[in-house]
Here is the input.
Amino acid sequence: MGDPQIPAQPGRPIDDGEHLAVLGYQDTFTRSMSLWSNFALGFTYLSPLVGVYSLFAVAMSTGGPPSVFWILIVGAGQLLVALVFGEVVSQYPIHGGIYPWTRRLWGRRYAWMAAWIYISAMIVTITSVAQYGSGFLGSLVGLEVTPEATLWLSVVLLVVALALNFAGTATLSRVAQIGLAAELVGVIAVGLYLLLFQRKQEFSVFFDSMGVEGEGSYTAAFMGAALAGLFLFYGFEACGDVAEEVSDAARRIPRAMIMTILVGGVSALFSFCGYVMAAPNLQEIVNGEDADPIPAILDASLGSTGAKIFLIIALTAFLSCVLSLQAAASRLIFSFARDGMMPGHRWLSKVSGTAKVPTNALIVACSIPLILCLIIYRGSEGLLTGITSFAVLGIYVAFQSVVLAALRQRIRGWRPAGPFSLGAVGTIVNVCALAYGVFAMVLLATPGSTGDVLADWTVVIGLAVVSGTGLLYLLIARPDAKSTAPSGDALEVAVLLREHRGGTAPGNQRTPLRK
Here is the structure.
């Protein structure tokens, strides 16, 4: 597909403040995030440790060892999406990511629906990660993981992450980097150790279904295991959610997104393969007889002390993941509110005077997951898996809203004007990213076959309820009509950015920056 090109700069480069002014905003946040910090934020949100641990047993019992190939398939597809996002964020390095991108690429109503679905999915993802992380915290402190303990331990993770987020961007960056280190140790180092020194299976096991298909076709079983990869490869978009806190955002964020996908994919492969190869009772896992096999694998391979150290590393990764999720969700809510596009927008768009973070939006990003944890506690046993699947589908719908809007603008003649550009292959990458996204959404929306209508259709029902609620509010309250924020201006902004980067406007007249 060709390497992304960084175009030549004939005039002086546009700094972050000038770029933001062209887009119609003032630079009000502290830009303390470096490329490394931005990558750490995206990586800890993507969190291969969290993704692999959370769905390893489900993947194995559904698709067997060959389900590992979903990591490669989804990783390649999401890399295409990340490249499209990179071009968009390079032109629009604005807080909130998907919401401002879809608004500027298409329009306010389109952006409302994309952002509403995305916010809902992110809130549910925060809940899911806190719930899965509670098991690590319980094991570390010696608590039996009962439904009551899961509820309270989830609350602890959510509140601690909120307190750290309140401390400001510098603290967020430091914790994200600590989480990155924990992730790399927990997935790459442990995965390599298991692969090199604790192998109990042959490598050919990754081509052996181990009877998971029963009397049916293995193709159906393999497709059913797609969630293992689809749940893992999102989070890179969080790099753009905090764009106004990143120095040299238009250049660094696209690179951070690509790094997140590549490093995350390699890490997940090492981790997943290591667990498969080191499993002492792999057939039991494939048969679904062990719903939480990783602790036993680690205890058998690392010993009780090593397993305890891993628990600390994993808990650090989970906390960092919740922290990054809250930060990304709060910036999206802030961006949505700043443009007057949601209820309570004046309150939600406030930024603290000292820490320079959207505190009220952070409170919302913590409070709703707390309520959802209580609902899960009082709900059915499979509710967590169902809402996790909805979250993944919601995220993919929001992703593809950006990909589709970008392709629409390309057809109209848009050439992305940020310093990160795919050049001549941009349209090809965009089309392939859209095709991949449609394929992924069909997989996620395909109902189950348990015979329980509510359980089988949970994902589709969840998306329908969220979409229907958002559409109803849009039609009744008309938030798009109350907002004066610019929209659908991708072509115009591209021209402005090229003029200012070149130093002159057509006719040798300098076009004034938009205030």
